[in-house]
Amino acid sequence: MADFNYAGRELEGLATLPRYYDWIVDCFRPHLQGTGIEFGAGLGTVSERIRPSLNKLDLVEPSPDMTSALEQQFAGDDNVRVFHASQEDYVKTCAASFYDVVVMVNVLEHIENDRAALDDMYRLLRPGGRLLLFVPALQFLYSEFDRRVGHYRRYHLAGLRDRVTAAGFSTMTARYFDIAGVLPWWLFNTLGGKVDFNPLVVKIFDSAFVPALRVLERVIRPPFGKNIILIAEKA
Predict the structure, then answer these.
(1) How does pLDDT run across 208-231, given as a tens digit for each residue?
(2) 2, 30, 40, 234 - which has most CB atoms within 10 Å?
(3) Cα separation of 80 and 18, whole Å?
(4) What is the largest CA-CA distance in the chain?
């Protein structure tokens, strides 16, 4: 996995995107039950949202600074365990068929051998367990920002589905996400070379555009998007 020890990890640095995170997790929520694990938990932005739906939650994070923040955030919650480890190192020590849910939000693209990682996720899950993925989409959007934060790739829907199926999963849901983000990303990040975000623009996007996007993409499946959300089941 690429180095996660940078201060502005892509979504963790966007503290003014609560509605965007809620949208992602609400897509996951019907599949959150039992014992879960989140890889690349970062500062707990997703963790805090999925925790109420799970009996137990393990958080795996390779950055020591973020691990410390997670330990503080969930101090006193005996059903949350925090591990300072990469995905690759953690799975070497974990028993097979242990979890009901695996969550990876903006993580798979950081792993060079993503096919091996998906095989590992399959091994960790109990039969009937769910893999919940959120990744950046469309390789033509790959930018200096992607490179700096350690993205090996951006995904296309068919290719991601094929990788998940090859690992043994049955795909339940796979679709593009955030169609409105494609053009701005291409203009400002891919063409313009921006490697950071304007907090005011982020706040406006979250408050004004995300609620409308949620409604639109619930009614009309977008033909493309800045991200992909995928939910798969272990047979």
Answers:
(1) 999 999 999 999 999 999 999 999
(2) 40
(3) 22
(4) 47
